[in-house]
Every structure is written in structure tokens, then in C-alpha cells.
């Protein structure tokens, strides 16, 4: 076990955004950049990140379940997976001084279950307080682009990979616009933590902006 008196806590960085904004590609970029800077990095995702949490992810994303998933059950599943993820991956990594880079975290819950499903933010906040016990990301990189353009990207990716839409990807455009606006509202309310990146630009421009903003924060932390 690491000695918490001598081992500095690692940093917790999250990437957020709706479907089709390029989180997976850019998460790999962030991970590689941090490792090049000499940090131990744990790359993970939500929902998921552990075998049991990944099983909950499959329940959440399955478009062909035997019964509709109630929105309260969906919210509780999200936080159940998060509790497991925190206990088994995120907290132990941070405690030993590793940096954690996560594809989505609680901002996604406020965006998808709050903005998209219409669940009150206060109810989400109660679960956040219970499960996370004050743990929040040190930095969140929000990849943002207009909903219609993101949907075109998603469709192109699915055709290229031969995949089909999951349960969330099958939602209507109004759902995704509500998700986007919820994300932007959270970024406006927490500018010290959340950095908005224009994901609608070309890949090279997006990654240059992302690394520039990441390096600004690294310098501030040094």
C-alpha cells in the first residue's frame, strides 16, 4: 500500500462530450502525452472500467433488452457502476500517485440522465455526494460540436465499423441537443475545471487546441 503521507495524489482528468465528437481518439492522445511527460497513467471509461461495471454498462447500452429500462433504474445503474469503478480503479490509482484519464464521468450523468432524460439535478447530486464523497475531476476536457454534425460523424463511424447504434445512440435529435446544452451549462458554471474544445474543427486543429489547453494546466500544477 502506498504511504499517503509521502505519495502525492495523482491527477484525475476526464473527457466529456456527446456521441460522435471523437472522445476515444483524443483520449488516446491525452494518455500518450501524459506518459511522455513521465506520469503513470491509467486510461479507463464510464460506465465501465471493471468487469462488474462493464456488465452494468452492457445493461445500460443494450438496445434489445427484454423490457424497457426505467429512467430511475438507469440512473442507479450508472452510479452503481461508478461506485465499483471508484473503489476498484480510480481511488487506488490516485492514491498511489498515478494519473487517471477517464472517458466520461459524472458530468455525463448530468448531461444524459439530467439533460436528456429530464431527471432533476438535485437527485443526481444526492447520488454524487453519496458515491463520490467529494471526489471530482481536476480537469475536464469537453469536446463540443453541433448535434447534427456529431450525428453525421457517428453515422459514418458506424458504417465504417459495421456496427449498430446502442440504446443511447438510438435516441432522437432532441435528446442529443438537450445533452449538449446540459454539458455547456455545466462548463459555464465551472470554468475553472471544464475546458470546452471545438470538436468541429479538423482533427489536427482539435488536437493542437486540446494539447495546448492541457499543457496550460500541467504548467499550473507544476
TrEMBL record:
<feature type="domain" description="Thymidylate kinase-like">
    <location>
        <begin position="15"/>
        <end position="209"/>
    </location>
</feature>
<keyword id="KW-0808">Transferase</keyword>
<dbReference type="InterPro" id="IPR039430">
    <property type="entry name" value="Thymidylate_kin-like_dom"/>
</dbReference>
<keyword id="KW-0067">ATP-binding</keyword>
<keyword id="KW-0545">Nucleotide biosynthesis</keyword>
<dbReference type="InterPro" id="IPR018094">
    <property type="entry name" value="Thymidylate_kinase"/>
</dbReference>
<keyword id="KW-0418">Kinase</keyword>
<comment type="function">
    <text>Phosphorylation of dTMP to form dTDP in both de novo and salvage pathways of dTTP synthesis.</text>
</comment>
<keyword id="KW-0547">Nucleotide-binding</keyword>
<dbReference type="GO" id="GO:0004798">
    <property type="term" value="F:dTMP kinase activity"/>
</dbReference>
<dbReference type="InterPro" id="IPR027417">
    <property type="entry name" value="P-loop_NTPase"/>
</dbReference>
<comment type="similarity">
    <text>Belongs to the thymidylate kinase family.</text>
</comment>
<dbReference type="Pfam" id="PF02223">
    <property type="entry name" value="Thymidylate_kin"/>
</dbReference>
<feature type="binding site">
    <location>
        <begin position="17"/>
        <end position="24"/>
    </location>
    <ligand>
        <name>ATP</name>
    </ligand>
</feature>
<protein>
    <recommendedName>
        <fullName>Thymidylate kinase</fullName>
        <ecNumber>2.7.4.9</ecNumber>
    </recommendedName>
</protein>
Amino acid at each position: 500500500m502506498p504511504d499517503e503521507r509521502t505519495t502525492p495524489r495523482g491527477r484525475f482528468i476526464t473527457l466529456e462530450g456527446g456521441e460522435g465528437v471523437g472522445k476515444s481518439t483524443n483520449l488516446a492522445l491525452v494518455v500518450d502525452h501524459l506518459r511522455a511527460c513521465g506520469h503513470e497513467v491509467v486510461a479507463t471509461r464510464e460506465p465501465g472500467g471493471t468487469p462488474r461495471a462493464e456488465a452494468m454498462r452492457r445493461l445500460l447500452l443494450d438496445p434489445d433488452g427484454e423490457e424497457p429500462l426505467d429512467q430511475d433504474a438507469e440512473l442507479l445503474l450508472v452510479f452503481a457502476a461508478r461506485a465499483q469503478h471508484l473503489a476498484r480503479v480510480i481511488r487506488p490509482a490516485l492514491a498511489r500517485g498515478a494519473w487517471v484519464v477517464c472517458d466520461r464521468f459524472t458530468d455525463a450523468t448530468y448531461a444524459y440522465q439530467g439533460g436528456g432524460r429530464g431527471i432533476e439535478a438535485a437527485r443526481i447530486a444526492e447520488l454524487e455526494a453519496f458515491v463520490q464523497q467529494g471526489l471530482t475531476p481536476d480537469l475536464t476536457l469537453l469536446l463540443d460540436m453541433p448535434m447534427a454534425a456529431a450525428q453525421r460523424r457517428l453515422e459514418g463511424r458506424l458504417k465504417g465499423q459495421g456496427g449498430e447504434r446502442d440504446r443511447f445512440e438510438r435516441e432522437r435529435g432532441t435528446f442529443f441537443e438537450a445533452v449538449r446544452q446540459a454539458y455547456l451549462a455545466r462548463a459555464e458554471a465551472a470554468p475553472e475545471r471544464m475546458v470546452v474544445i471545438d470538436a468541429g474543427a479538423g482533427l489536427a486543429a482539435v488536437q493542437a487546441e486540446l494539447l495546448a489547453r492541457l499543457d496550460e494546466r500541467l504548467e499550473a500544477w507544476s
